[in-house]
Amino acid sequence: MENRLPNGWCATCLDQVSDWGSGGTPSRKNASYFSGNIPWIKTGELTGKYINDTEEKISIEALKKSSAKLFPAGSIGIAMYGATIGKLSIFQVEAATNQACAVASPFQNILFNEFLYYYLLSERRALINSGKGGAQPNISQGLLKDWPIWLPPFNEQKRIVAKIEELFSELDKGIESLQTAREQLKVYRQAVLKHAFEGKLTEQWRKDNADKLESPEQLLARIQQERDTRYQQQLEDWKAALKEWEANGKEGKKPGKPKEFLRQGEVDSGSQLVFDIPDEWKFELIGNIFSVHVGATPSRKNNQFWNGDISWVSSGEVAFGEIHVTNETITHAGYENTSTEIHPEGTVLLAMIGEGKTRGQAAILRISAAHNQNTAAVRVSEVGLPPEYIYYFLLYQYEQTRRVGSGNNQKALNKNRVASIQFPFCSAEEQIAVVQALSEKLSSIESVNQELEIQLTKAETLRQSILKKAFSGQLVPQDSNDEPASELLARIQAEKAALSAKAKKTPAKRARKAKEVSE
């Protein structure tokens, strides 16, 4: 390793070039401990390069009565564990920290604190991967102290930092432009969806096909007639299945009588739409057109219910896309012992529960599948309409759908609220035309978005490349006039040795004086 070091650099470890410590949390039972003016840093506050203020401040008494310590301005804090593991900041003020924060105070004129900041930033992933612990990695102080570093001359450290910041500044401008473009693309996508469901995207198509279109009322009547015919056939099939079940000695699960379609849902302020639509369209409730179902989960205590040949969808898999395969499957025994149903391809699933992004997301089944109780199934293809139309509408109304959830602790949709979602209803032919127009435009938007994501990934890769070059001596040229890092280290070691020797002599002097006094 030594023979690959740039001229003037030396290999050492972080413990040799900085003091390390960690903090603590004063007892919250004593309110006076948190009424002082000493900044007290929690790892959640290590969010940027610098930190100069804190949410909480502690008193001098709190420092004395706890393991919290005061670190000088210029120190660097790094989160040792938890959600913020590896995050770091430079203290611009004297501050104490909690116990989840390790703090480095670089030796003056040996290690430039901003050089250490960028070095730790470049090593963050490696530190996390090296951290001990099972489910929760832990970057210990011991690991940090022993972590290797190639140390350049002090002046070169400053030149390296200046070059990093110059390149990062240019890079950040490019990233900002890409992120702005990505946000503008989201706005454009929403505008396209808005035009589609206001009838503007198919305005010319509607004029060209005015004499061929069913009115919403005619379409509803046709759907109901077809549904009645289908129900009568289901009744005949059920009667035949029931006779066969009885003839076989009533073995197995009794065939269930098919349920006649009942309109569901009600218009309320939470789901009512307020935008204009063409005269040829009308607003309808999802539950007035389609059957809505809620799933169930077979008992996980019974292994015989799982890993069968029936696809089973969990709410986490409902994430604005198509479902061609599921993470889990259930057996026929699992299906028969729970209230879940198997839905046909073309069913639209809607996630009903989840405080994160899950609630309100939709997906189209491209296979027949059952599902859990946290999702609703809207059987769109059952009535011969394109499932993509409802899917795209739910994509457009994502935020609105999330808002109509109920519940105190965690908002959730339910079967009635899903059935009560209002949507613009038009002829089957125009629904197909809307889907085709949207598919083309959204495909183009997605292509641009993917390219932006690729460029953003490349930008972050370039950032890591800059850091890698910086800490291997390839970012700025070496200067032979700089004092070699090895001499800096030698000076530090000499100072440490002198301090150690002085500390050893002091007790002996005191002992001699004590002896003289006693004589």
UniProtKB/TrEMBL annotation:
Q: What is its EC number?
A: 3.1.21.-
What keywords appear on the UniProt entry?
Answer: Coiled coil, DNA-binding, Endonuclease, Hydrolase, Nuclease, Restriction system
Question: What InterPro entries would the database entry show?
Answer: Restrct_endonuc_typeI_TRD, Restrct_endonuc_typeI_TRD_sf, Type-I_RE_S_subunit
Q: Report whether Ribonucleoprotein shows up as a keyword of the record.
A: no
Indicate the segments forming the Type I restriction modification DNA specificity domain, all copies. 6-176, 278-451
Q: What Gene Ontology molecular-function terms does this entry list? A: DNA binding; endonuclease activity; hydrolase activity
Could you tell me the superkingdom of the organism this chain comes from? Bacteria
Q: Where does this protein have coiled-coil stretches?
A: 435-469
Which CDD domains does the record cross-reference, listed alphabetically? RMtype1_S_Eco2747I-TRD2-CR2_like (cd17247), RMtype1_S_MjaORF132P_Sau1132ORF3780P-TRD1-CR1_like (cd17515)
Family assignment from sequence similarity = Belongs to the type-I restriction system S methylase family.
For this entry, the protein name equals Restriction endonuclease subunit S
Organism this protein belongs to: Neptunomonas phycophila
